[in-house]
Automatic annotation (TrEMBL):
GO BP field: amino acid transport
Residues in coiled coil: none
Name assigned to this protein: Leucine-, isoleucine-, valine-, threonine-, and alanine-binding protein
Span of the signal peptide: 1-28
Gene name of this polypeptide: braC_5
Length: 399
């Protein structure tokens, strides 16, 4: 009788242990939420970012999509480029889906709405590719890391490429965080070059008619001497560069200048051979094994080269894997943060490093000059020189 009871107890214990083991095995997965503007004005950027993220996870895991035997599960959520939607979807990802890490979004405005959610849930958010300085500046918290470049990195590299004694610059940008942060950082970086800003013009993000804005810029620049440039900071549609170029700014001695962009946008650059600026990425510029793999695989899978945000998404995917490996798992957020602060890893752009103070990824940028090349229907950004991590004196803006 006693033996039977003992046997039943052992069986019951064994069943419970097996049930727990099976449940643990079933839950032994790493959940990564990609919260990004899959639909909306930045769809092209979003697709590149997601393709790159998946390729980065694949590359960093040797094709297994596993880390130490745990499967990586990617959960997609579409912000539709709306800040309130982005905020609620990130909360859903952390709360309902129990995501260990989130990546995204595309828009700076959406990102700024999402930052407090990461702090509330005490989970890591890797911002890619939203650019506004305030993301790793005034709005930052310890759960935020950014693999994408920030406005200061864009600004400093473009100031190095365009600035100089006797140079006068006007700016045109979209009237929201991306544009205003970009111009503010550009002005600050330009001070050290000897150039001056003559005029700032901000227009709505959906502007298609730039006539009035261009006239104000030309009027402001008309009395200036020396080299005169109009520096354009723009994301999405509208194509201000081509439309303003059609107004013949050379009549006022003004040259158009801008930073790099996705391949589709580079078609407008073909109208401006010799245009200079600084870019985050162009697939023929970086020479390293990660970029070689990305370019080869992207051509084989899609028949096209990887683009601006494909490289960024891949950098984020590799960072996710390297951080989890270094932390010994994805469950402990504090261990992840400790692992990521100061972490160096290889990307399609070469080495990146998360600065410990604000978790901004320090990375190289590229001074380019546009060329017209046979077989390409866009202006090709040809490397003038790489602007290395040591030259990118990026201000700490979260102090």
């Amino acid at each position: 009788m006693g033996g039977g009871t003992q046997m039943k107890g052992l069986l019951k214990t064994g069943v419970a242990a097996l049930t727990l083991a099976l449940a643990t095995a079933a839950s032994a997965e790493i959940r990564v939420a990609h919260v990004y503007g899959k639909t909306g004005p930045f769809e092209a950027y979003a697709k590149q970012s997601h393709d790159g993220l998946m390729m980065g996870l694949e590359y960093a895991t040797g094709g297994t999509m596993e880390i130490d035997g745990e499967k990586i599960v990617v959960i997609e959520k579409d912000t539709q480029l709306d800040p309130a939607t982005g905020r609620s979807l990130l909360a859903e990802a952390y709360g309902d889906d129990d995501a260990h890490i989130a990546v995204g979004p595309v828009s700076s405005g959406v990102a700024l709405a999402m930052l407090p959610v990461a702090e509330e849930y005490e989970r890591v958010l890797i911002v890619e590719p939203a650019v506004a300085d305030s993301i790793t500046g005034s709005a930052w918290n310890r759960y935020i890391f950014r693999t994408g470049r920030n406005s200061s990195q864009d600004a400093i590299s473009n100031a190095v490429a365009l600035g100089g004694d006797g140079v006068t610059i006007a700016t045109l940008a979209q009237d929201y965080a991306f544009g205003r942060d970009g111009v503010a950082a550009f002005k600050e970086a330009l001070e050290a070059t000897g150039a001056k800003i003559a005029h700032e013009e901000y227009v709505p993000t959906d502007t298609t008619d730039f006539t009035a804005a261009a006239e104000r810029i030309f009027n402001a620049m008309e009395g200036e001497s020396g080299d005169k440039k109009l520096f354009i900071i723009w994301a999405g549609g509208g194509n201000p560069m081509s439309k303003i170029n059609a107004m013949d700014p050379s009549r006022f001695g003004v040259e158009i200048a801008t930073g790099g962009n996705i391949l589709a946008a580079l078609k407008a650059y073909k109208e401006l051979p010799g245009l200079e600026g600084a870019t985050y990425y162009y697939y023929e510029i970086p020479q390293n094994p990660v970029n070689e793999w990305l370019v080869k695989e992207h051509f084989e899978r899609h028949g096209t080269p990887p683009d601006f945000f494909t490289a960024g998404g891949m950098a984020a995917g590799i960072a996710v894997v390297e951080a989890i490996k270094k932390a010994g798992g994805a469950e402990d957020t504090d261990a992840l943060i400790e692992a990521m602060e100061g972490m160096e890893w290889q990307t399609p752009k070469g080495k990146m490093m998360f600065r410990a103070e604000d978790h901004q990824a320090m990375q190289p940028m590229y001074h380019f000059r546009t060329e017209i090349q046979d077989g390409k229907d866009y202006g090709v950004p040809v490397l003038v020189r790489e602007i290395g991590l040591d030259e990118m004196k990026i201000p700490l803006r979260n102090q």
